Amino acid sequence: xxxxxxxxxxxxxxxxxxxxxxxxxxxxxxxxxxxxxxxxxxxxxxxxxxxxxxxxxxxxxxxxxxxxxxxxxxxxxxxxxxxxxxxxxxxxxxxxxxxxxxxxxxxxxxxxxxxxxxxxxxxxxxxxxxxxxxxxxxxxxxxxx
Amino acid sequence: xxxxxxxxxxxxxxxxxxxxxxxxxxxxxxxxxxxxxxxxxxxxxxxxxxxxxxxxxxxxxxxxxxxxxxxxxxxxxxxxxxxxxxxxxxxxxxxxxxxxxxxxxxxxxxxxxxxxxxxxxxxxxxxxxxxxxxxxxxxxxxxxx
DNA sequence: TATTTTCCTATTGACATAGTATGAATTATT
DNA sequence: AATAATTCATACTATGTCAATAGGAAAATA
Lengths: 145, 145
Prior knowledge:
Two copies of one chain form a homodimer. The first copy, chain A, is mostly helical. Chain A is built from six helices and two strands, in the order αααββααα. The A-B interface holds A 1-3, 8, 11-12, 15, 36, 76, 80, 84, 86-91, 102, 105, 107-108, 110-112, 114-115, 118-119, 121-123, 126, 131, 134-135, 138 and B 1-3, 8, 11-12, 15, 36, 76, 80, 84, 86-91, 102, 105, 107-108, 110-112, 114-115, 118-119, 121-123, 126, 131, 134-135, 138.
């Protein structure tokens, strides 16, 4: 029941791009340095985000990445589902084709349905913008104290 | 983000033992047949339940297993945590020693905390007795219709 | 042309999952 | 006492995923 680094790093990449969205393109190298993540591994992860249109890229010197839309538009759920696949804790709830023959009489299925709903309810109601806001408010606390 | 067969089978074993709790000891072979799970694999899983005291066993001919207490006493969460380990989706929330150095400034940590709480809230509020009840009520529907 | 960057794909080591296999220990039955 | 039935313990295996690492091609800028 773990979210892999792939999914967690993807969220951090999106947040990093949102926080540093000055108009310039942001290099993987810089994200990797800030987030303390392997450059080469990050390349793979950001490539997933890129293919899905969550970020857009410019190649070559002075190239890099930008977040592709308003941070409000990206929920944690979207990012995790993209990078991790379905967040349902059992395969039977992913698609019709994954259903087993016991589904009709499965006494435990409702638990997994409730669990899936609870998970979705959390991750679909937090956006990158929320994390940006949280970050900014914690920054200003540092100032005040 | 998947619950493995180990955890899911463990829940089904506990439910099976609760449903067939006539006073006789129930053989792995019978559970395996009803649940369509490999006998040998089930042995390993029920052995975990046994060591934790969730079931108790009698060896030898006519031996087998019984659920060790009132089905109300066993939540899905207890069973899953026993067989799967922590249900927290990130390692940082499992124990002090798993915390990384970025914990203090980690903007995503709150999401994982909320997610953990949501998961726990579901699995800790469903007991084996609830599943028994659900099973019995669906049985009686079959009668009526 | 040289440099910087993204893009693409292959490979690797470690680990977990989902079993299978073998047999020892224990108890009831005959 | 012998046999059969059962749990208990441990080792093994095949497959897959994770978390990278590695090497270079393609594109854009300077």
